[in-house]
Amino acid sequence: xxxxxxxxxxxxxxxxxxxxxxxxxxxxxxxxxxxxxxxxxxxxxxxxxxxxxxxxxxxxxxxxxxxxxxxxxxxxxxxxxxxxxxxxxxxxxxxxxxxxxxxxxxxxxxxxxxxxxxxxxxxxxxxxxxxxxxxxxxxxxxxxxxxxxxxxxxxxxxxxxxxxxxxxxxxxxxxxxxxxxxxxxxxxxxxxxxxxxxxxxxxxxxxxxxxxxxxxxxxxxxxxxxxxxxxxxxxxxxxxxxxxxxxxxxxxxxxxxxxxxxxxxxxxxxxxxxxxxxxxxxxxxxxxxxxxxxxxxxxxxxxxxxxxxxxxxxxxxxxxxxxxxxxxxxxxxxxxxxxxxxxxxxxxxxxxxxxxxxxxxxxxxxxxxxxxxxxxxxxxxxxxxxxxxxxxxxxxxxxxxxxxxxxxxxxxxxxxxxxxxxxxxxxxxxxxxxxxxxxxxxxxxxxxxxxxxxxxxxxxxxxxxxxxxxxxxxxxxxxxxxxxxxxxxxxxxxxxxxxxxxxxxxxxxxxxxxxxxxxxxxxxxxxxxxxxxxxxxxxxxxxxxxxxxxxxxxxxxxxxxxxxxxxxxxxxxxxxxxxxxxxxxxxxxxxxxxxxxxxxxxxxxxxxxxxxxxxxxxxxxxxxxxxxxxxxxxxxxxxxxxxxxxxxxxxxxxxxxxxxxxxxxxxxxxxxxxxxxxxxxxxxxxxxxxxxxxxxxxxxxxxxxxxxxxxxxxxxxxxxxxxxxxxxxxxxxxxxxxxxxxxxxxxxxxxxxxxxxxxxxxxxxxxxxxxxxxxxxxxxxxxxxxxxxxxxxxxxxxxxxxxxxxxxxxxxxxx
Length: 815
Description:
By secondary structure, the chain is an alpha/beta fold. The chain has a domain at 142-180 and 346-354 and 453-728: Anaerobic Ribonucleotide-triphosphate Reductase Large Chain (Alpha-Beta Barrel), CATH 3.20.70. The chain has a 6-stranded mixed beta sheet with strand order 4-5-6-14-13-17.
């Protein structure tokens, strides 16, 4: 039975448009130049010099407090919710204190910093001077620098060679430490306010001293929590003071009243429990703002299950007569604020993300603890506003269950037809939760999972060590290429094992065995590096604010989440490019071992010369013509299934004691661009250093010739679900699907059919190839065109040419 909802409310939501303030913000955001602000670095340097010799946890707390107390603030005329990490409408701060000297561009005098692979952010001379001072101060004492030193002692050059050859990401200077891109504990934050956290920390201090505890680090942690929480409250009060000052000088009555209201709200939250929907949103902004200023390079502002913990505030205010349009304007402001927060990333993130904003995720629907589906009126409200804003971010995930009501599915598909770029994505709740249960995470925890970044699931009760500890992604096509070259990587280094000359292989199994040997050698070596990082990073870096508001267990433990705890830490990894390898193996199986159309020597020569010349192109066409995943061909689909299982077995066999074994999620990003930079030409017909297959269940672009349902059947045969939390499938449908309710209902039925039969994840680009080609030629006329890349969306015109071509060449389907 479908949930009983307020149909009148849904009808009123359908009538909502963006407010004048929202549209003014959009215009200002689009007109604002990309700019790097150095103000944060000014205060980090000051604080670090003043606190030399103090405990590390306290130093990090005082550093953030110094930033929050002094950084320049501004309230814009169109602001409904206040608070930004820089005074600009859009703008980014840097974090040399976290990552060390991670931006090479600051040592040039070109007046800008590379924000993405193809776009720059302006920086003035005075700011550049500040950044250089900070980079110089922190470059040799950052956790990134110290971890590299430890790796060099234990690995020599091997790990550097692995990174250089793009066989693993992200880089250590990405600042992707535990929980930096996960969800804050919003229900508790809104329930008790930061004053409640402060009182809890003080109780722990008092009790520990009474018990005559002998671990000073616990006292330092609780004191650091108080320092950063008090500073976050003072930061909110700075905005209250500013709003009061502006109101005093304001002559327009409506504007004066609005500023007075802003001051009242900022004076009350986040210090105290939120009482209204407006206060809840404002409290969330201040807490996420403090999180961003603690580590700006990971400026992910994740909503988590927003439609669950905000539902009571929303319905209460609606029942009390708060205008729906007012709540919509405030919500759209925060969605837009978080969706356009920019960052200065390191090189590996630029290559794997293609964008300069911090991916943030809003998770909607899904099971509640009682087993019923949680979709509600706020779910509908959020989807409606996402469709009206038409931004490339946030990533919106709809947790699909067999009980998901049709009115939500229809609204989700309508939102997708408005955004057109894969927003929202659809993720099978049963698949994710079942994988958590198999990994001994109880139902009450697993059911609260939310997306991290674009796809990766995390539970708010555990610190997610996905990144420099969890080692993120392995490049399986690059590993396969090493097997074809006796362990030599794309840069000519002997990074892999000596598995023998492939010209001496006589059958498929010998090739397969060599690949698995290379995979285990590289992946276990890299996971060992994560174990080393886990032991080093906490000696040089701490996150007191994130630990306090990002992991509820940190407070009773009296421990920063960078000090991993077996009961509260999970480790994730992504083995990417399985389908690329499956198609490669299928081609070699047919062309060399079975049909003997080519010798292995001919094939390897063609690969090593990037299929050059007439004969090289002939061989490439033979490779392209072999059976490909995505066409419901049992043989190649079964190779993918075998690779999925064996790759997972290798990862799970790594001894991660005393922690959980590594959990696997095969996600998206624009990783296929990054991964492609580490791969020579491959036997599937792909040329050297071109992007790999997008997502993780998406077929080779243009090779899925038997229609969209054949792709779904291939995905089911490959059956990633048994060993993987999520696997990303992108599909492109023509814009004809935008015409009429009947076509939208067909896409609802198509989505339901895939997920109900066990599919784990699906998302749609809805546009014509001709439109994409025109947008590449005329970018100035297509600034708002949003496309799905891997697991996230981006503005088409901001992507590199290689990724634009990748999206263009994907198969285009109709229903």
